[in-house]
UniProtKB/TrEMBL annotation:
Localization annotation: Membrane
Main location: membrane
Organism lineage: Eukaryota, Viridiplantae, Streptophyta, Embryophyta, Tracheophyta
PROSITE patterns tied to this protein: ATPASE_E1_E2
Lipid bilayer topology: Multi-pass membrane protein
Residue ranges of the TM segments: 244-262, 268-289, 426-448, 468-497, 890-910, 916-936, 1030-1051, 1063-1084
Keyword field: ATP-binding, Calcium, Calcium transport, Calmodulin-binding, Ion transport, Magnesium, Membrane, Metal-binding, Nucleotide-binding, Translocase, Transmembrane, Transmembrane helix, Transport
Role description: Catalyzes the hydrolysis of ATP coupled with the transport of calcium.
Record-given protein name: Calcium-transporting ATPase
Record-stated family: Belongs to the cation transport ATPase (P-type) (TC 3.A.3) family. Type IIB subfamily.
């Protein structure tokens, strides 16, 4: 059989039958997959020939599906082929392609205000590369040259009297040049870090005093960078005035006023032209106010994005402060994933490795130690920890100069913005054609009438005004026909959603993420802190072969562990020495712990056992530290013992640390060999703890003699001290949130570094792991063949003991092989690749490092899975709201174009004047977007499947509603236009004016009621939630009130006359009838190509049974 459908098949045989997976059909959204199910009951009685026939039918079915899908997509793809960009990191070629394709644009400044300026971006990139080159020269060439410069011949800096009086002994520029140039000789000239500390008047133990901060900011500067001033309201007014059609209408209005004054005198000659000018002013002001409010929302979000906190020592206490509050002399504590917030000098630390690529462009990480102590602002801590003395802040740093270029060019536009630019362009071309034809028809008809009446050679100013009116009508048709508001409505909707999400504890860093999240079909989530509360406490401990539940304190506030003093002492040493956290005193003098939740739980347990953190830390000298990270999955420390010798402590993933041990402490606290039986016993303890959803850690130590390799932490030969079970309860509402995701066709997968039994227990509690789901460990997953991965991933629900690389591999497979739209959470530095690879990267706001946040699209400020579901709901809301707005606007477009064109062709005049069309344009553009694009989400959004890649934006349901409403409005308005006087029994000199006013009034009320209809595209009840949307109600009320004012009081300018109450009632009734019409239209069945609900294995279910075979 000759097949046009190039596909690969695989089958999974189960007890109920065979499921065939088909991947890669031409014409289907790429990459694509289908699943077919053949029940066992059908196959059991089938012969070989029957099965072959079924196979042929299967291929025929696939080919047919491919053909139908291809035909469905071809038309839309043809028209919008140039308006297709990736949701993340789109290519510059694609960005340039759609810009050049968007030819019909009324106001380029406004239309492209929220899209990236590629020219500025290119210039900024060149500027950035120049600065990076300059930094490289400073780091490598200047550093080498300084070796030959005598310290005595250094440049002289004159310190101001104000600085001397404040107690400072070094000039800000001199201090900046030492660090920027890596001038080690200059540092030694000033007696090292201690000498610099004295000259900036700070204690290396206590840090800066709060009272000194204003003086330091005055002398050495503030830690802020030069930013472009915000755009003022008048700038937005100016942007709105750049609309070409409005400019042409203003010229027409001025000419009309000039000719009118010459012929009709004052004030009658002013009315037509002034009406147009007043309408333009109203449109400009409403547009400018809307755009200005959007810009304020984006400014608020931008400020939130830049909020970074750092830990410092001030007044002898460790505390968190904003990086913008840092001053010269601050003692900053750095750990993995932190951004270095200012230039400074290394004071102390362990294994500190810095990534300087963001500053210098060099990818090779730099080790920081006493002989290489310079730290530059904007670089990232890749590994280790340390303390630094801040020497330079703000624009005196190279990072400050680089920051000026980073925001040039703006953010990339979203796929929906680009697609709607394409829709606007196509409609604009149609509208332009209608406008030209309308003007030609009106003008030719006018000229023919003059010729018939033998007046072709006689021209008056009235004739000139008539032609100007025709031209103004044609231009106004373009105003209405070019839906400039379509792409801008996306920005409005996204700004509204992002502001609301900010209040709901989610910070959207990239506009496209909010939009893409609505299409997410899979969420790969961390466990700790996202599904759980991240408030950890030690719940159980196994030590000296005994399990103890840690529940209550004794009367003296201390928990008495039933163990020997030696075992307790070694346990406290392991807790207090091997930690990256600190116990500090808060303002009330109580103990407070600064550190990760796991470290905090262990330190709290140590204090509960009666341990003294400070005493233990002073007793031992720390030699080397290997901080915990998601790759090592352990933390180790080497300390010098007071009586001589050294001791290494290790804690981390229970199976990993247990594998490093060959001894265990017995009932008396003495080390004894770890036999195979004891090893199995400990493994059983770990599994028992894990099955109770406890996070398990092993603590171990090893004594070393002085002859051991200095600073070398061993990897084996440890003595196991204890197994600790830490309770991290599941967050309230997580199970319901997971069920919401599953109902919405979103598969939730847990990816965690924890023990597989702990992960399974938590996943079951959350409703993630089902009876037919798979749970694997990271090492097993990464060693699978590609075919095994393809087999396991559809059913994979839990991955435990995973590395960041495993998460990256899973995300890549889900996106490329299975065509999923993937959202992934991450908090560590090593999660950055997965966050970058995913369609939507979600960084944790509390537990997340700055590196993770920088690579994320959304920052979940409360680390809560329910917040992620809320982002998904808002993403879907944005998409559906824009669809509602497009449906509403296209209806207005079609009716306004057709009624004016047909009327012009038949009667020689347009029923809607320029002023009236400008008002209609404002209703459907700015006001319509405000009403429909800002509707809050409802729960029903999470009961439908996600929008698939490649789905049509304007659906068949939308076309059904658009065509149905357009036909009704055209019939009613056509009858009024051509036979209205008879139908309404109008007579008298003003009958024509009254009829035109009724047509205008009826047309506006049709749009008002259709705006309400557009709130629901498929459901009958259009009022649900309407009275909770104050913005929608406000727009409706404002539209009706202003319509009354235009008709009753501004007739001179708007070419209307006051109407009687029964004509008002008729206009409202004509509009209101569109609501029952909408009900009838919605009852017309439409075969929509929507995604069917997915099974838990991730595949779409097609028809099954004998009829398919």
């Amino acid at each position: 059989m000759k097949r046009k459908c190039l596909a690969t098949c695989c089958s999974v045989i189960g007890e109920h039958g065979i499921r065939v997976f088909v991947k890669g059909c031409i014409g289907l959204s790429n990459p694509s997959q289908l699943s077919f199910f053949f029940p066992a009951s059908v196959l059991s009685n089938s012969s070989t020939s029957t099965i072959k026939k079924k196979k042929k039918k299967l291929w025929k079915h696939i080919s047919l599906l491919s053909s139908n899908q291809k035909q469905r997509m071809d038309l839309e793809k043809y028209f919008l082929k140039d308006f297709d960009v990736d949701n993340k990191n789109p290519s510059e070629e694609a960005l340039k392609r759609w810009r050049s394709a968007a030819t019909i644009v009324k106001n380029r400044r406004r239309r492209f205000r929220m899209v990236a300026d590629l020219v500025k971006r290119s210039e900024a990139e060149k500027k950035k590369l120049k600065i990076q080159e300059k930094i490289r020269v400073a780091l490598y060439v200047q550093k080498a040259a300084l070796q030959f410069i005598d310290a005595g011949s250094r440049a002289e800096y004159t310190l101001s009297d104000e600085a001397r009086e404040a107690g400072f002994g070094i000039h800000p520029d001199e201090l900046a040049s030492i660090v920027r140039g890596h001038d080690i000789k200059g540092l030694k000239f000033h007696r090292g870090v201690e000498g610099i500390a004295r000259k900036v008047s700070v204690s290396l133990d206590d840090g800066v005093h709060e009272s000194d901060i204003p003086v330091r900011q005055k002398i050495y500067g503030i830690n802020r960078y030069t930013e472009k001033p915000p755009r003022t309201f008048l700038m937005f007014v100016w942007d709105a005035l750049q609309d070409l059609t409005l400019i042409i209408l203003m010229v027409c209005a001025v000419v009309s006023i000039g000719v009118g004054l010459a012929t009709e005198g004052w004030p009658a000659g002013m009315y037509d032209g002034m009406g147009i000018l007043l309408s333009i002013i109203l449109v400009v002001m409403v547009t400018a106010i809307s755009d200005y409010k959007q810009s304020l929302q984006f400014m608020d979000l931008d400020r939130e994005k830049k909020k970074i906190s750092i830990q410092v020592t001030r007044d002898g206490k460790r505390q968190k402060v904003s990086i913008y509050d840092l001053v010269v002399g601050d003692i900053v504590h750095l750990s993995i994933g932190d951004q270095v917030p200012a230039d400074g000098i290394f004071m102390s630390g362990h294994s500190l490795v810095i990534d300087e690529s963001s500053l210098s462009g060099e990818s090779e990480p730099v080790n920081i130690y006493d002989e290489k102590p310079f730290l530059l602002s904007g670089t990232k801590v890749q590994d280790g920890s340390g303390k630094m003395l801040v020497t330079t802040v703000g624009m005196r740093t190279e990072w400050g100069k680089l920051m000026e270029t980073l925001n040039e060019g703006g953010d990339d536009e979203t796929p929906l913005q680009v697609k709607l630019n394409g829709v606007a362009t196509i409609i604009g071309k149609i509208g332009l054609s209608f406008a030209v034809v309308t003007f030609l028809v009106l003008a030719i008809r006018f000229l023919v009438e003059k010729a018939i009446h033998n007046e072709f050679t006689h021209w008056s100013s009235t004739d000139a005004i008539t032609l100007i009116d025709y031209f103004a009508i044609a231009v106004t048709i373009i105003v209405v026909a070019v839906p400039e508001g379509l792409p801008l409505a996306v920005t409005l909707s996204l700004a509204f959603a992002m502001k609301k999400l900010m209040n709901d504890r989610a910070l959207v860093r990239h506009l496209s993420a909010c939009e893409t999240m609505g299409s997410a079909s899979c969420i790969c989530t961390d466990k700790t802190g996202t599904l759980t509360t991240n408030h950890m406490v030690v719940n159980k401990i196994w030590i000296c072969r005994k399990i103890t539940d840690i529940k209550t304190k004794e009367d003296d506030g201390i928990f008495h562990l039933e163990t020997t003093e030696r075992a307790l002492n070694i346990l406290l040493q392991a807790i207090f020495q091997n930690t990256g956290s600190e116990v500090v005193k808060d303002k009330e003098g109580k103990n407070a712990i600064l550190g990760t939740p796991t470290e905090t739980a262990l330190l709290e347990f140590g204090l509960l056992l009666g341990g003294d953190f400070e005493a233990h830390r002073k007793e031992f000298k720390i030699i080397t530290v290997e901080p915990f990270n998601s790759v090592r999955k352990k933390m180790s420390v080497l300390v010098a013992l007071p009586e001589g010798g050294m001791r290494a402590f290790c804690k981390g993933a229970s199976e990993l640390v247990l594998g490093m041990c060959d001894k265990v402490i017995d009932d008396n606290g003495e080390p004894v060999p770890l036999s195979e039986r004891k090893f199995r016993d400990v493994t059983d303890i770990i599994n028992d703890f894990a099955s109770e959803a406890l996070r398990t850690l092993c603590l171990a130590f090893k004594d070393l003699n002085d002859s051991s390799d200095e600073k070398k932490i061993p990897d084996n030969g440890y003595t196991l001290i204890s197994v600790v079970g830490i309770k991290d309860p599941v967050r309230p509402g997580v199970k319901e949130a997971v069920q919401t995701c599953l109902a919405a066709g979103i598969t939730v997968r847990m990816v965690t570094g924890d023990n597989i039994n702990t992960a399974k227990a938590i996943a079951r509690e959350c409703g993630i792991l089902t009876s037919d789901g798979e749970a694997v460990e990271g090492p097993e997953f990464r060693n699978m063949s590609p075919d095994d991965m393809k087999r396991i991933i559809p059913k994979l629900q839990v991955m435990a003991r995973s590395l960041p690389l495993d998460k990256h591999t899973l995300v890549t497979q889900l996106r490329n092989t299975f065509g999923e739209v993937v959202a992934v959470t991450g908090d560590g530095t090593n999660d950055a690749p997965a966050l970058h690879e995913a369609d939507i990267g979600l960084a944790m706001g509390i537990a997340g490092t700055e590196v993770a946040k920088e690579n994320a699209d959304v920052i979940v400020l409360d680390d809560n899975f329910s917040t992620i579901v809320n982002v998904t709901k808002w993403g879907r809301s944005v998409y559906i709201n824009i669809q509602k707005f497009v449906q509403f606007q296209l209806t207005v477009n079609i009716v306004a174009l057709v009624i004016n064109f047909v009327s012009a062709c038949i009667s020689g005049s347009a029923p809607l004047t320029a002023v009236q069309l400008l008002w209609v344009n404002m209703i459907m553009d700015t006001l319509g977007a405000l009403a429909l694009a800002t509707e809050p989400p409802n729960d029903a959004l999470m009961k439908r499947p996600p929008v698939r890649r490649g789905d049509r934006f304007i659906t068949k349901v939308m076309w059904r509603n658009i065509i149905g409403q357009s036909v009704y409005q055209l019939i009613v308005l056509g009858l009024l236009n051509f036979d209205g006087k008879q139908l309404l029994q109008l007579s008298g000199s003003d009958a024509t004016d009254v009829l035109k006013t009724v047509i205008f009034n009826s047309f506006v009320f049709c749009q008002v009621f259709n705006e309400i209809n557009s709130r629901e595209m498929e459901k009958i009840n259009i009022f649900r939630g309407m009275f909770n949307s104050w913005l929608f109600l406000g727009v409706m009320v404002a539209t009706v009130v202003f319509q009354v004012i235009i008709v009753e009081f501004l007739g001179t300018f708007a070419s209307t006359v006051p109407l009687s109450w029964h004509l008002w009632l008729l206009s409202i009734l004509i509009g209101a009838i569109s609501m029952p019409i909408a009900v009838v239209i919605k009852c017309i069945p439409v075969k929509e190509d929507t995604a069917k609900p997915k099974q838990h294995d991730g595949y779409e279910a097609l028809s099954s049974g004998p009829e398919l075979a």
